[in-house]
Structures are given as C-alpha cells and as structure tokens.
Design a protein that fits this description.
The complex is a heterodimer. Chain A is mainly alpha-helical. Chain A is built from 15 helices and no strands. Chain B has a two-stranded antiparallel ribbon. Classes of the chains: A mainly alpha, B mainly alpha.
Chain lengths: 278, 298
C-alpha cells in the first residue's frame, strides 16, 4: 500500500515532467535549429539526418561572422531600435501627459483622432508610406528605416494608463511648491514611471527588432539591411551551405529571445494593459 | 477645478488658452498625421485614379479600378485563401494556447520554466523561424523528408503549401494567445475552485463549468486577435512559398505587396489595402469591445 502523500508527490513529479516535455516539444524547432547549426556541411547533406552531430563544430558560426556582414546588420537593427524606442518613450510620455494632466479646447476631439488612428493598422498604409518615404529620398537610410516607428498608439496608451493612476495629490502638492508642468513631467512623472517605461521599451524592442515588411520595402542595398532582412535573403537565396543559414538564424533571434526571457513579466504587463497591437 | 475657477476668475473673462498642452501632444499628433492619417486618406484617393510606377496619380477614373478589382477572378481566390488562413490560424492557435494555458494554470515551483517555453516562439521573428522551417520542410535533405523517408516538396506542393504556412504562423502566434488565456485562468478565484471541489467536481468539470466561462472575455479576445494577426501575416508567406504554388498561399496582404512592388500597380494595391482595412476594422471593433472586459478582469 502506497502512502497517499507519496502518491501525491509522485503524481506531481510526473505531471511536472510531462509539462516540461510538452514545452520542449513545442520549442523543438529552436532545438532543431541549435543542434543542426553545429553540424558540418557534409553531415547536413547526408541522409538520414541525425539530431546529434558526430563531431560538434562551430564552423557554421565562424562562416556567419566572416562571410555574412552579420555584425553590420546587427548594428543597423540596434540603431533603428534605439532611435525608435527613445522616440516612442519621449513622444508617447509627452502625449499621454498632455491628455491626462491638461484640460484644453479640442482635447476630446484630438483624443478621438488618436483612437481612430489606432484603428488603422500599419499594414494597410505601408505601401503609401513607402511611396512617401521614397519621395522624401529616404530609401536606404536609417531615417527611412525608423521614421514610421517613432510613435505608436501602444506607447501613448501604456504611459497614459500609468499617469492616470498617479495620485492627484502629487500634482497638486507639486503645483503648490511652485513646480510647473514641465518640471513635474521631467522630475516626477517620468522618473516614477521607470517600470512602465521599461515594459514599453522591451515590448517595442521585440516588435521593432523583429520587424520585416517595412525594412524589406525601404532597403535595397545590403549595407542598409537589418538583421531580419539580411537573414531573409540568406533563407530565400540559393545558398549552398545551409548550415550557415541556420547559424545566422540562431544569431539573429538571440537578442529578441534574451529580451523575452528576462523581460517576460514586463511584456505580459504591456500586452495585457494595452491590448496587443499588430 | 470648477470651484476654483468660479472663485477666482471674474465672470465673462475668457481664460487664456495655454499653448503648453498642445506642445506636449504635438510630436505624436504630427507623426500620426504624417504616417497614418495622410497615407490612409491618400490610399482612398489613389483608389479612384490611375497611378504611374512612382505611385503618383495620373488620371481620375472614378470607380473603374474598383470594378476591375472586384471582377478579377484572382482577387476572389486571394480573398478565399485569406479567410482560409485566418480560420486555420484561429482554430490552431486557439486549441494549442488553450491546452497550454490549462496546463500552466496552477502556479507550482518551477512552473515558470514551461510557461516560458509555451510563450517563447512569440519572440522569434519570421526570418529566423523561416530559416529553420525551410530546413525542416525543404525537399532535398529536409528534416521532415528524412524522418518520413519521403521526397515531398512541402513548400511547393499544391496540397501542402498552405499547411506549411499555417503551421509556422500558428507556431509563432500561440505565445501571445497563451499569455492572455493564462491571465484569464489565473484570475479565477481559488475559493470558487475549492468550493467546487468540495461539491465533488472533478478536474474536467472544473475546467468546463468554471474556468472557461470565467475566462470567456479573454477567450473571445484571443479568437479575434488571431483572425487579425493572420490577416497581417506577411513575412512567412514571402519567405516560405512566395504566394505559390498557383496562388494557393496568396493572401490579401501578400497580393497588395505583389501589386505595388512587383507589378507597380499602386492603385490596385490601394483598393486592396482598403479591403484589408475593412476586414481588420470589423474584427478589431469586436475585439476592442471585448478588450475592455479583459482589462476589467485582470
């Protein structure tokens, strides 16, 4: 006769292991990518394929770093992300502050305008935006890459939600102490909202870093490609050495995966508080 | 606020409008104006014109191009594929997300590990995902063919191409739905579940009669979310099948891209973009109505 307590413990171990196995099966494409990125090219073109290589090798990664300008792509991606994220934080906070702490004529109308623009997905206007950016001469420039990501409804919404829950006394006390709106915004509202800003930054980092359609449209020279577009051309190009493509894919996904694993709670907060956009 | 004004501001004297609030919201408004409102209006205008290859209107033709789009056979094929992909994405993503969320509903020591695994693919971009899936699905030396001992061109076979696209799309979209559903299930009060157990409910009954009804706002939200995300999916189609074979994976957004960028038919692309907008608009209206409840529940 098994003690009920032991039985319960065994059951929970079994259920935990089962859930872990299901999780591993679900992310198996990533494990497959990782394992086959350390195969030699010869092993990759020899059937049947084996998950575990005879001799693990880093030669595919070496090739990615020497044959593919992957660091240059990464640099382009990071520049675009930094500019767009800083802009979204600053402009998003400013707009949110304006709508929360001020009363002014046309406020309701302007807020309706913002809400309406949020009903227009980027994918709908992407072609017309491409034409505009082309006319502005911004194809193959950093400005062209980040110009449509400088603001988003999500960033205004997230900041607004934070400001709305700030106690009104803060603002009144600051006003009594002679602190104007700009002072209150810079010295109190912004510093207090650091955790919301971090959530916004991580959420937007994954979105912008992973963006594909827009950077595909506005770049047609290799030096301006972001990581995603660089890898995409490897995938669709006739590359003889596919091990290199897999290794490049692994490198390209790493920043977003790290940001996701460490910023998970922030991202969940961002998604749930403002609804996922796009 | 009103009381203070009544006390200090003399009646009839108009309060001077401060420019400060407008300065706060100006950058956001200008950017929205330039890259959302203006292009949207321009899209509508261009749909009534003929355009040159630079996207400039050359001639006003009224509804002529609209008529041409709606009478084209390919357009309706494309709409059919779009709805099919959305339906598969909706069902596939929801079933898996629901299963994973039910598995993770209880917080135990270490549950964060599998929870992270269930959500992780949402952080993987289409390009690296395509890099791996092409290796799995390709005909020559592909992993799937190696395992099955077949020689099927999964990405380019009329019967399988759409399933390859949907498989990758579903895999990438499960994470977001999983997170929303998990929030819903974890908000179900433990007292309610405990009293159900006291009344003799088993696990299945708990799920069907308590957890799913209580999380219904999140469930509806996730359903509409996945219809929309399928409408917006572009990269995996471009990278895995290129809309082929014979238009079998050509969705509306891919068709827009093809018309504008490959064929240089901007006015056609604009008309189709408006169709895409209307599809998404209808679904989003419903989603927004439910989103309020999602926020309310958390």
């Amino acid at each position: 006769m098994i003690n009920p307590r032991t039985k319960k413990n065994i059951l929970s171990v079994v259920s935990y292991s089962a859930k872990l196995l299901i999780g591993l099966a679900f992310i198996s494409p990533l494990i497959i990518g990782l394992m086959f990125s350390i195969h030699t090219e010869a092993e990759l073109s020899q059937l049947p394929l084996r998950l575990f290589p005879k001799v693990p090798t880093l030669e595919n990664y070496a090739k990615v770093f020497t044959d593919v300008p992957i660091f240059h792509y990464l640099k382009n991606s990071i520049i675009v992300c930094v500019v767009a994220i800083v802009s979204q934080i600053v402009f998003g906070s400013l707009a949110a502050y304006g709508f929360v702490f001020f009363k002014f004529p046309l406020k309701k109308f302007l807020w309706t305008v913002i809400l309406s623009t949020m009903m227009i997905p980027g994918e709908v206007v992407i072609i017309t935006n491409y034409v505009t950016v082309q006319h502005m001469g911004l194809v193959n420039t950093y400005a062209g890459l980040f110009i449509t990501s400088l603001i988003s409804g999500t960033s205004i919404f997230m900041m607004r939600q934070y400001y709305m829950q700030l106690p009104k006394d803060f603002k009144e006390a600051a006003t009594l102490d002679g602190c104007g709106d700009i002072g209150f915004f810079l010295r109190i509202a912004m510093p207090l909202s650091v955790s919301t800003i971090s959530a916004l930054a991580i959420y937007q980092f994954i979105r912008i870093y992973n963006a594909f359609f827009w950077p595909l449209l506005v770049t047609n020279k290799d030096v301006w490609r972001t990581v995603q577009i660089g890898v995409a051309y490897l995938v669709t190009g006739d590359v003889e050495e596919y091990g290199k493509v897999i290794a490049a894919a692994m490198v390209a996904m790493t920043p977003a995966v790290i940001a996701f694993i460490f910023g998970q709670d922030y991202i969940v907060k961002g998604m749930v508080s403002s609804g996922i956009k796009g | 606020m009103f009381r203070r004004n009544a006390g200090y501001a003399p009646c009839g004297l108009k309060k001077r409008v401060s420019p400060l609030p407008y300065l706060f919201i100006a950058p956001a408004m200008i950017l929205f104006g330039m890259f959302t409102i203006y292009p949207f209006l321009r899209t509508i205008v261009l749909s009534f014109t003929l355009t040159n290859t630079y996207g400039n209107p050359t001639k006003f033709v009224g509804l002529r191009m609209w008529k041409r789009v709606f009478t084209s056979e390919v357009f309706w094929t494309v709409m059919g594929v779009t709805l099919k992909v959305a339906a598969i994405n909706l069902v596939g993503t929801f079933m898996f997300a629901l299963f994973f969320a039910l598995l993770s509903a209880n917080i135990v020591k270490g549950s964060k590990i599998y929870q992270t695994m269930f959500a992780l693919p949402m952080a993987i971009a289409s390009a690296p995902a395509a890099g791996i899936f092409v290796f799995i699905f390709r005909q020559k030396n592909g992993l799937l063919n190696s395992i099955l001992g077949t020689t099927i061109a999964w990405q380019h076979d009329l019967r399988t191409a759409i399933w390859v696209v949907c498989f990758v799309t579903v895999w990438m979209h499960i994470g977001a739905s999983f997170i929303f559903l998990l929030v819903g299930f974890r908000n179900v009060s433990t007292e309610l579940l405990e009293s159900a157990v006291l009344d003799g409910a088993n696990n299945m009954q708990k799920i069907i009669h308590i957890m799913i009804p209580m999380a219904s706002p999140q469930i509806f939200f996730v359903l509409f979310l996945n219809i929309n995300s399928a409408f917006k999916s572009f990269a995996q189609i471009r990278l895995l099948t290129g809309g082929g074979p014979v238009n079998s994976t050509k969705t509306l957004i891919y068709y827009i891209y093809e018309n504008a960028l490959i064929k240089g038919r901007f006015e056609t692309a604009c008309i189709q973009a408006i169709c895409l907008f209307l599809l998404i608009f209808i679904v989003t209206r419903i989603q927004f109505a439910l989103e309020k409840k999602v926020v309310h529940y958390q």
